[in-house]
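Structure tokens please, single chain.
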Amino acid sequence: MAIFNLFGEKGKLGIDIGTAAIKIVELEKSGGRFVLKNYGLFELKGTDVQSSGPGTGQSILKLPDQEIIWGIKELIKKGSIKSTDAIASIPSFSTFTTIIEMPYLSEQELAKALPFEARKYIPIPLSEVVLDWSIIDILNPAGPGTSGSASKPATVQVFLAAVPRDETEKYRRIMKGAGLNLKALELENTALIRALLGNDLSPTAIVNIGGRSTSIVIVNKGYERVSHNYEIGGFEITKSIARSLNVSIEKAEELKRKMGMEKADENIVNEAMVSLIDMMVFETKKTISNYEGLKNQKVSRVLLVGGLTNMPSFVGYFKQKLNMDVYGANAFARIMYPESLKPVIQELANTFSIAAGLAMRDV
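Here you go.
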């Protein structure tokens, strides 16, 4: 699916500009395998992201272009990153996506009809968005032996995506200012699916826990089918710990990483955040249940990704509460890396999952 492809060449840098940090992964291909050349994370101070509440929309992308450019340049300089071709992600809250069903006659006819259909789903004028689409399923393929197949066209499911033009222009300015060649913009969920699932087509739920929010994505046959954003993320949990224990945000983050959800008689950190995590479980269960009921299709497993997944006993707790197969995802499973990184590779994979998926893209 070639969403927002700008130049049609392969990039080597995946750049994920998130709510609280800029993350870069540099990959090369050797013998058909991806090789990790470099990675970097840069947290911009003074963004007020950590003190923002749910629904505030605070994000590094809300900062002036020059501050974001400075952060990317600092990462490139300190990490001695050599590649200049980049693929960047568009965050979920900046995009409009939906799946629609349409009769299929030809690619050309579909391309003509889609803008008219898109007006029903996109809340702003089409002149103000970049629109892209991809056929993700054929529901009633006509063929030999099918009654009336000569006259009845197939029905196709189309994944429709739109991004405001001012957002795409902002990315162009930022990448140019940082001295990078922007090869493509991609939906962050698409990058996540590539990194975590590869060619696995089984129905899967991906729970991506970010700083400001949690994204719950149902994937089938390699495509996003349902996406639900829940406005609680890692920072809200850290703040809950800080309030409950009357400690600083920095100390709360340290305690969260150290104690997590481990069962202990005096794990007061657990008590301070369990209600918020239980709500994440509830939202995940509800999203899966709604999808299964609507599509009459079983979701086989849940993959957890994001910084919070590094917390002790978090995956086990989620599995126990959800009562189904739950795994910590590994975005670096198909990437070769130095042996020296082995002790920390799972933590890196959770943190850099979207950036890795972007760098894996062939455009």
